[in-house]
Protein: YkgJ family cysteine cluster protein
Amino acid sequence: MDCRIGCAACCIVISISSSIPGMPEGKPAGKRCVQLTHDNKCKLFGKPERPEVCSSLKASNEICGENNEDAFKNLSILENDTNIRIFNYNTL
Structure:
């Protein structure tokens, strides 16, 4: 499966902990990557400065679904399920 041009769910929904040009501290979940154009295309696609984490993301039916709405929903679920939670053990 190829990425749907202009979807950008992975560039918006998920958090990225590694440095991105223009976002040295990474990207929080739900925030647009600064490297997205107005029409949701990656300015770094195919360039050596594109972070490895971004290059390693691969489109799949399980993640991307049938449409952009599916991709946003599926990635939101994965982001939430893999989010590190900090517990205050004094309240347990």
Remarks:
- The chain has four helices and no strands.
- The mean pLDDT is 90.
- The chain has one domain: 9-82.
- Residues 29 and 45 are 20 Å apart (CA to CA).
